[in-house]
Amino acid sequence: MFSRFLIILLALVVVSPTWAQKKYPYSFPTTPTPVSTSDSKVTYDLSASFGEQNGSQYQEINLGLNWVMNSFLNWRNSLFTRLGSAVENVSGLDSSLRVQTTSMTDDNAFGFHAFLGPGVRIASQNWNAAFGEAGLIFKLGGIQLGAGIKSLQYFETRTDKNKDPLPKNEQQVFVILSGGGTL
């Protein structure tokens, strides 16, 4: 099961540089010109999420590194750690490919950013999962505030601290405050 994740992750690493290339329209006999509305860039963000498993609340802290390939595609890799008093502490990496859209004012001070996409979670204690996520972020001056939902489908049976079985699927709500920055 874990080997499938590695194959998917390897495919993303090998194929994604091709997606990052700028697109050029070719109309014979003119020369190519770029169509991309924004350049490729790397950004970072900090977010928090929360959820519940077997009646116990937990929180996750995420530090994300985003490769914004163009105005509509983002490859996000996020280190996370899950904490809670009655839950197993789990750490790992979430990797997702997000389709996104952004609408901002001319001075880039106000607007919104929406995203959705699939991903894979590689985690300690065999808490590996596939997930889908979607979110909406509002920009108000220098502050970014957003929220979203992540639906995880675990590959293996898990148990909580009391050795009670956990469901194969789980939903998390996450909150983004201040968004991060550009490298």
Summed up, what is this model?
With 183 residues, the chain is mainly beta.
Question: What are the SSEs and their pairings?
Answer:
Layout: H1 2-20, E1 41-53, E2 56-70, E3 73-83, E4 90-104, E5 110-123, E6 129-140, E7 143-154, E8 169-177, E9 181-182
Antiparallel strand pairs: 1-2, 1-8, 1-9, 2-3, 3-4, 4-5, 5-6, 6-7, 7-8
Give an overview of the whole structure.
- Strand 5 (110-123) and strand 6 form a beta hairpin.
- The protein has one helix spanning 2-20, and strands spanning 41-53, 56-70, 73-83, 90-104, 110-123, 129-140, 143-154, 169-177, 181-182.
- The longest helix is centred in the N-terminal third of the chain and has 19 residues, at 2-20.
- The protein has an eight-stranded antiparallel beta barrel.
- With 183 residues, the chain is mostly beta strands.
- The protein starts with a helix and ends with a strand.
- Helices cover 10% and strands 56% of the residues.
- The model is unreliable at 9-37 (pLDDT under 50).
- It has one helix and nine strands, in the order H-E-E-E-E-E-E-E-E-E.
Count every helix, treating DSSP H or I runs of 4 or more residues as helices: 1
- The average pLDDT score comes to 80
Task: Measure the end-to-end span.
Answer: 35 Å
What is the strand tally? 9
Largest sheet: 8 strands, antiparallel, barrel
* Apparent shape: elongated
Global structural class: mainly beta
Largest sheet, spatial ordering of strands: 1-2-3-4-5-6-7-8
Q: What is the C-alpha radius of gyration, as a whole number of Å?
A: 19 Å
Extract low-pLDDT stretches. 9-37
Helix percent band: 10-25%
Order of helices and strands: HEEEEEEEEE
| Relative strand content | over 45%
